[in-house]
Amino acid sequence: xxxxxxxxxxxxxxxxxxxxxxxxxxxxxxxxxxxxxxxxxxxxxxxxxxxxxxxxxxxxxxxxxxxxxxxxxxxxxxxxxxxxxxxxxxxxxxxxxxxxxxxxxxxxxxxxxxxxxxxxxxxxxxxxxxxxxxxxxxxxxxxxxxxxxxxxxxxxxxxxxxxxxxxxxxxxxxxxxxxxxxxxxxxxxxxxxxxxxxxxxxxxxxxxxxxxxxxxxxxxxxxxxxxxxxxxxxxxxxxxxxxxxxxxxxxxxxxxxxxxxxxxxxxxxxxxxxxxxxxxxxxx
Length: 284
Description:
55% of the residues lie in helices and 11% in strands. The chain contains ten helices and six strands, in the order ααβαβαββαββααααα. The strands form two sheets. It has a four-stranded antiparallel β-sheet with strand order 3-4-6-5. Strands 1-2 form a two-stranded antiparallel sheet. The chain is rod-shaped. It starts with a helix and ends in a 19-residue tail after the last helix.
């Protein structure tokens, strides 16, 4: 992730960790989601654990990697999910995200996952579905991975567990990226159209010069001569511009220029473009 994306993720996790449950049941639910052992490098998460009554172990429990800054023990009191109220369930999910969840914004795409023990993955996915946030899950290197890749699902989850301010910034960035993508697509399409128009105009001018050089342009119908003259005077004009200038339909301008290009390539006086070959009447 870029530095700004990492900063946003850090701010979002800090905001979630700063949520201070008022209900005693919610506090227990958060602890159940965090524990019973949590190892973290995040000061905001460490402060939350301390507020909830977590304690540093008397000795390394053997689960903490050497680079970890904070290791804590919490009461091992699992949440009775089936009987828990919705606010307790969301509090548990908040703790589980802080303990086992990660968010990536790399490349402008949001990706949130929980990495949990293999035997927990299916149950966690079911719990998320129970609160209206279904997620996929799989096994990866002997761990369970529960994943969202939908920005809408991720935003809904983060909003429900308490990341309101940071979520607004995340959504603003998503909208900005979408707008930039749409703008780039429009610019690319316009650029491609312009390149095609320039190439077509170049071919048409060369064809007009060739027909004028051998005298055939003067033998063409009035509309063809008028369109050829308008193209020569305004090489950059679109077919619609020439049609408006001559008070013609755009299709008539297109047929006239197609005739000019055909004549420059074939010495058949336009027979290949007469009715029966292209479905149009001859130009008058």
